[in-house]
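DM from R.C. (forwarded with permission)

"hey, sorry to bug you on a friday — could you get me a structure for this? deadline for the figure draft is monday and I only need the backbone to look sensible"
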Amino acid sequence: MSLSRWLVAGLPIVGFIGLALVLMSGIGKDPSILPSMLIGKQAPEFELPLLYEPEQIVSKQDLLGQQYFINVWGSWCPTCQYEHPFIEQMSNEMNLTVVGLNWKDTRDEATRWLKQFGNPYETILFDDIGTTGIDFGVAAAPETFLISADGTVLAKYAGQLTPEVFDTTFADMLTP
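My reply, with the result:
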């Protein structure tokens, strides 16, 4: 058998082994933990209108000086509805500052959704085109970021925020 025949015959086996190794490397890993290039770096700069007051623009600079969460949500997102009671608990009972980033939505749908489920956000930024979400590396809603008082991204969680996730992902990083 010639060398070219060995290569042709062996190529599918090598490909299968390579694919198996790649797939096996993901076993046991939490798919909701998406690495973020922003952890430990400054949050992206942004200037966005408020959902309820489109003439008022809020920038990253306006939020400096306090630790806060950015919760990316949309009225079209079913998981956002499931995590919403915990976001309300964070804001009300835990007295944490939560900024909503309404992502790829319409004002009418977002305000209708908040009227139905309640508004736990201190501020709601309106990112209808989605560019700020993309700058943050958002793949899908919901995603939650913890931002330090100086604007550094401390942590990120992709998926439904629950008390258990909060305790393991964010609780140790909160400033008193």
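R.C.: lifesaver. The chain has six helices and seven strands.
me: no worries. The two ends are 73 Å apart (CA to CA).
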